[in-house]
From TrEMBL:
It catalyses: di-trans,octa-cis-undecaprenyl diphosphate + H2O = di-trans,octa-cis-undecaprenyl phosphate + phosphate + H(+). Catalyzes the dephosphorylation of undecaprenyl diphosphate (UPP). Confers resistance to bacitracin. It is found in: Cell membrane. Its EC number is 3.6.1.27. The gene is uppP_2. Belongs to the UppP family. GO terms for cellular component: plasma membrane. This is Undecaprenyl-diphosphatase. Keywords: Antibiotic resistance, Cell membrane, Cell shape, Cell wall biogenesis/degradation, Hydrolase, Membrane, Peptidoglycan synthesis, Transmembrane, Transmembrane helix. The lineage of its organism: Bacteria, Bacillati, Bacillota, Clostridia, Lachnospirales. It comes from [Ruminococcus] torques.
Length: 296
C-alpha cells in the first residue's frame, strides 16, 4: 500500500511538471531521492518515462478537435467549404472522402514530424549516454537555473512586442524544425524541461505564448509516446502484479493532474508571462545545489 501511495505522488508530480515549464524529469529525479519507490532500478527507469503516457492521453483528449484530421461533422462551415472546393472530385469518385479530411490538421502533423527530426536523429540513439552523463544533481541544477534566467530574459525582451506568429497555420516548417532543436536540449539535459525548452525557443522565434504552448503540447504526443514505447520494449512485459498496479496508478494520476494543469496553463498565459516559472526554476536550482553540497 505504501508503494501505491508513492506511485500516486509520482503521478501527481509528473502531471504537474510535465506541462509547466519547470522540468518533469528534474523533479522526478529529486523526488526519487526523498520518496524512493521500493522497486528494481530497471523498473524505475521504465516507470518514470512510461507514466508520461497518462499525461499524453490528457493532451489527446483536450486537443482532440485540433489534432484529429478526419470525420468533420456534416453541415459545419468547414465541411461545406471543403465540399465546395472538392465538388469536382466528388463527382468523379462518387464519395466525399476529401470533404472529411482536415488538411490544415494534416499539415500541422507534418510540421510536428519535422520538429521531431532532431529528437529522432540524435535524442533517441544516444538516450542511454545522456542518462549516464547528465542525469545527476549538478546538471539538473544548472539546467534549472540557466533556463530560468532564459525565461526572464526572453520575456523582458519581448515585452510589448507583437508576436510574428499568432496561429498554428502561420508556423512554417523551418520554424517547426528550429523548435525541435530547442526540444533536443531538454532530451540531453534533465532539468531543462521539454515544454520549457520548446516554449523559450518558440518565443525567441517570434511565436505567441498561446501558440508556443499549444504546439508544445501537440509535439509532446509523438515524442513522449515514442520514448515510452522504447522504454517498454527495453524493459519487456514481465511485470509482477505489484509493478503493474504501481505503473497503472502513476499513469492514471498523471492523466488526471495533467487535465487540470493544461487547462490552468492555457488560461494563465492569456493574461500572464512565463517569468514566474523562471524565478521558480532559479530558486529550485539553488536549493538543489545546496542539497547536493550539504545533505546528499
Amino acid at each position: 500500500m505504501i508503494e501505491f501511495l508513492k506511485s500516486f505522488l509520482f503521478g501527481i508530480v509528473e502531471g504537474i511538471t510535465e506541462w509547466l515549464p519547470i522540468s518533469s524529469t528534474g523533479h522526478l529525479i529529486l523526488l526519487n531521492q526523498f520518496v524512493k519507490l521500493d522497486v528494481s532500478e530497471e523498473f524505475y527507469s521504465m516507470f518514470e518515462v512510461v507514466i508520461q503516457l497518462g499525461a499524453i492521453l490528457a493532451v489527446v483528449i483536450l486537443f482532440w478537435n485540433q489534432i484529429f484530421p478526419f470525420g468533420a461533422p456534416e453541415g459545419s462551415h468547414t465541411v461545406r467549404r471543403r465540399q465546395a472546393k472538392h465538388a469536382h472530385r466528388k463527382k468523379k469518385s462518387g464519395n466525399g472522402i476529401l470533404s472529411y479530411v482536415k488538411m490544415d490538421i494534416i499539415i500541422l502533423w507534418l510540421k510536428v514530424l519535422v520538429a521531431c527530426i532532431p529528437a529522432i536523429v540524435i535524442g533517441m540513439p544516444f538516450n542511454d549516454l545522456f542518462e549516464k552523463w547528465f542525469y545527476n544533481y549538478p546538471c539538473v541544477a544548472i539546467a534549472l537555473i540557466v533556463f530560468g534566467i532564459a525565461f526572464i530574459i526572453v520575456e523582458n525582451n519581448h515585452k510589448g512586442k507583437p508576436a510574428k506568429i499568432n496561429s498554428m497555420d502561420e508556423l512554417t516548417y523551418k520554424t517547426a524544425f528550429l523548435i525541435g532543436l530547442f526540444q533536443l536540449i531538454a532530451a540531453i539535459f534533465p532539468g531543462t524541461s521539454r515544454s520549457g525548452a520548446t516554449i523559450v525557443g518558440a518565443l525567441i522565434l517570434g511565436v505567441s505564448r498561446t501558440v508556443a504552448a499549444e504546439f508544445t503540447f501537440v509535439l509532446a504526443i509523438p515524442v513522449m509516446f515514442g520514448a515510452s514505447l522504447l522504454k517498454l520494449v527495453k524493459f519487456g512485459l514481465n511485470f509482477t502484479g505489484t509493478e503493474a498496479i504501481i505503473l497503472l496508478i502513476g499513469m492514471v494520476t498523471a492523466f488526471v493532474s495533467s487535465i487540470i494543469v493544461i487547462q490552468f496553463l492555457m488560461g494563465y498565459i492569456k493574461k500572464h508571462d512565463f517569468k514566474v516559472f523562471g524565478y521558480y526554476r532559479i530558486v529550485l536550482g539553488i536549493l538543489v545545489i545546496l542539497y547536493a553540497l550539504f545533505l546528499a
